[in-house]
Amino acid sequence: MTAAQAHEIAEEDRLRADLYNYLGLILAGPPDRMLLDQTAGLVGDDSPLGQAISTLARVAKLTKPQAAESEFNRLFIGLGRGELLPYASYYLTGFLNEKPLALLRQDMTRRGLARAENVFEPEDNIASLMEMMGAMIAGRFATPVGLAGQKEFFNRHIGPWAGHFFSDLEGAKNSVFYAPVGTVGRAFMEIEAEAFRMSGD
What we know:
The protein is mostly helical. Helices cover 66% and strands 0% of the residues. The chain is built from eleven helices and no strands. The protein has helices at residues 3-6, 11-28, 33-40, 48-62, 65-76, 88-93, 99-111, 126-138, 147-158, 162-171, 178-199.
């Protein structure tokens, strides 16, 4: 049995992990031409999430990398600060580097997760949290984390604020390409929260 076979996960979980990883990637930095082309090729169904994915694909077809980069900078970097501060601490306390970040770092240590050495952002930023959740589902760093562990991590570090952030991203005055990213994220967070709520323990 190969290592890959040992970490086989259900197709539904693979798709969930892929969407978390995609959101992590698209929120970590401005998309290059390849990522925009991949996004333009996405196909959604008739569900609210599927419709949001289709809208994002249409917008990606019309978006040039330079425009995406300046939009990303206005939203998240700006002069002094961007339009949005995509951090759990800020959304939950109104300040950066507060208790939610400390709790996340404790949780990361317990789970054997560490910040990449070339990343200087606080770990409670939305891109990192999406990436961590995707990695746990897919077992990218170790054995895939079961549903109870996923639920605990989501409810503690993502559920209380990520939906609000994605709603803000949808409506941000600088959002064009990132507006449908916000819609996809908000719809996905709603699905995940409901699934975890119904899962029991």
